[in-house]
Amino acid sequence: MTAPRGFVSPRLVAAAALFAVLVGCAPAAADELVRFASAGQGEEVQGYLTRPKGKSPFPAVVLLHTCLGLPEERASIGERIAGWGYVALFVDDFAARGLKQTCAVDFKPALSDAYGALFYLARLRYVDRARIAAVGFSQGGDTALKIAAGGGSAGGEGAAFKAAAAFYAPCANLNGAALDIPTLILIGAKDEVTPAADCAELVKRQAPGAAKLVIYSGAAHAFDLPEFGAGTRVMGMLLAYDRNAARRSWSELRRFLAAQLGR
Fold first, then answer.
1. Which CATH number among 3.40.50.1820, 3.90.1140.10, 3.40.50.2300, 1.25.40.10 corresponds to the domain 26-261?
2. What is the pTM of this model?
3. Residues of the chain above pLDDT 90, percent
């Protein structure tokens, strides 16, 4: 009997899964909604946790979103990070607070939420609490840089971030600050929202080897997010996807995390 269109043999699925395990590229599990306390705030916030396959304990990455909230690619970003061998926790600053965007305000709870995510991960038996990094995007990148400037620690629960990476962050906010943990900054040369020149100035003032800046020629703000297409104006900000810059930035991030977290 001919199988109907779209039908996939269970034996074929099982064989494919076994092959993936044998070659070490088993897909990450779907993300899980989790809740944790914002550090020092007492508020409960939520996030999306994705676990890698393999033997624990794993290093981990806290992901911090833009002022527009979680990206449409949230799940695939978590899966990508988990596919590299890290527990990924994408923090949702907005859901519990009923917020839609924070682009016109100084959103101070973001830093406390990031540390709340750190402390939550540090308590999980399958996470190596000594190998946790923060990775932020735009407003989340601002938070990642503040974490780096604070040495990665909020003085709570004995856990600290070991490294930080910031995609198209507003580097001018950290003017004059010293970045005290290894830091990677990724930004577009044509970013009108968070100018690359500000990040170049910040990195220039750091100790040798403390921070690395990568500037992508022709790329604008939010260059890694396909949801903005070739260019979209949002609240006056030009946001545009750049496939080449996105691919290169994720490769750069993967190398950075491997170097700093040993994966």
1. 3.40.50.1820
2. 0.88
3. 82
